[in-house]
Amino acid sequence: MNSPTIAQNLPPDPDALTGDASLGRVVAVRGPVVDVAFDDRALPLVDEALVVLADEGELLVEVHAHLDDHTVRTVALQPTSGLARGVPVRATGGPLTVPVGDAVLGRLLTPTGRVGDDGPPLPDHVPWRPVHRPPPRLAQQSAATEVFETGIKVIDL
Question: What pTM was computed for the model?
Answer without folding.
Answer: 0.73
